[in-house]
Amino acid sequence: MESKVIVVTSGKGGVGKTTTVANLGMGLALAGYKVALVDADIGLRNLDVVMGLENRIVYDLIDVVEQKCRLRQALIKDKRNDNLYLLPAAQTRDKEAVKPEQMQALSQELKEQFQFILVDSPAGIEQGFKNSIAGADAAIIVTTPEVSAVRDADRIIGLLEAAELFNPQLILNRLRPDMVRKGDMMDISDVIEILSVPLLGVVPDDESIIVATNRGEPAVLDKNSQAGQAYCNIVKRLEGEDVPLLDLDHPGLLEKLRRLMGGK
Amino acid sequence: MGTLIDMMSKVFAKENLPSKNLAKERLQLVIMHDRASLSPDLVMKLKEELIKVLTKYVEIDEDGLEVNLDRGDDSVALVANVPVKKVRRV
């Protein structure tokens, strides 16, 4: 399989980009792929804490592009999975400290060692965003079923196209089936109709994500997490498998019981 | 009394509409406008090229050149205001 750099982006902040990168990265690593996660949110790094790797940072992305260290010195190996590595962002620099060409070179170098490289993009459409997409072969757009998030996603789709990064895929995050049923939240088809991009997956709004983040353990590791299950399915789709969407409407008693027992 | 009841029923009628319909309608409108606007970067490029072509035929006031998108209810027009200093005699 050819190595692939995938940028995870959204325009709007707080819709779940970092959580998505952490979970897809861990999921892909569990599936046996060599995976590197790149935190491109220079100055506001968070992928390290979401992954629970914040205490292991020595060097960062800026040190690598400025050649203050080797790439392998800056890469942090995950404590749970040997296939998974994190390249943290610098916390005390700003987004102008990196150039798109440097990100392209970095992506090339990472492709030599990893099969999947997931880039966590910063919010916004400025330099940080441009840097994050510079070395990418594909894009995943994360949005929530809210007007502000969907509007920003549409802007991002336009900007990706202008940058010749075509065919982005969509993850609809934090869907609340109860609100959809009442007609108080846009559903999957509403969002797809507006954005007209293919759907990669739907992740339900789930308290287990907050618990997982508190612990620094991605939710895909938790068999009882519905969101974690949704991320597992997205991982399979990234591998090319055809997996149906989770039935969020009817997690009946049996299903709940089965989940409690640790089954799928 | 009548007006109060009217007002109440109006308020409740609005609240009874599923709010997602409202969200979708508003989004579709705002996105239509977003998609129809030019970025400052693109406007700059457009101006530069316009100037290049126009100066072949007329002498124009480059600083006074204005390019805008005018939106009607269901159409969009590109409107350029070009102050001409002198027409070249070809």
SSE layout:
The complex is a heterodimer of chains A (264) and B (90).
Chain A: E1 4-9, H1 17-30, E2 35-39, H2 47-50, H3 61-65, H4 71-74, E3 76-77, E4 84-87, H5 100-113, E5 116-120, H6 127-134, E6 138-143, H7 147-162, E7 169-175, H8 177-182, H9 188-195, E8 199-204, H10 207-215, H11 226-238, H12 253-260
Parallel strand pairs in A: 1-5, 1-6, 2-4, 2-5, 6-7, 7-8
Antiparallel strand pairs in A: 3-4
Chain B: H1 2-16, H2 19-35, H3 40-54, E1 58-60, E2 66-71, E3 76-81, E4 84-87
Antiparallel strand pairs in B: 1-4, 2-3
Description:
The complex is a heterodimer of chains A (264) and B (90). Chain A has helices spanning 17-30, 47-50, 61-65, 71-74, 100-113, 127-134, 147-162, 177-182, 188-195, 207-215, 226-238, 253-260, and strands at 4-9, 35-39, 76-77, 84-87, 116-120, 138-143, 169-175, 199-204. Chain A has 264 residues and is an alpha/beta fold. Chain A has one domain (4-260): Rossmann fold. Chain A has an eight-stranded mixed β-sheet, with helices on both faces. The longest helix of chain A has 16 residues, at 147-162. The two termini of chain A are 28 Å apart. The N and C termini of chain B lie far apart (78 Å). Chain B has a two-stranded antiparallel sheet. In chain B, strands 2-3 form a two-stranded antiparallel ribbon. Helices cover 52% and strands 21% of the residues of chain B. In chain B, strand 2 and strand 3 form a beta hairpin. With 90 residues, chain B is of the alpha+beta class. Chain B has helices at 2-16, 19-35, 40-54, and strands spanning 58-60, 66-71, 76-81, 84-87. Chain B has two domains: 1-35, no CATH class; 38-90. Chain B is built from three helices and four strands; from the N terminus they run H-H-H-E-E-E-E. The longest helix of chain B is centred in the N-terminal third of the chain and has 17 residues, at 19-35. The chains are: A alpha/beta (264), B alpha+beta (90). Chains A and B meet through helix 7 of A and helix 2 of B.
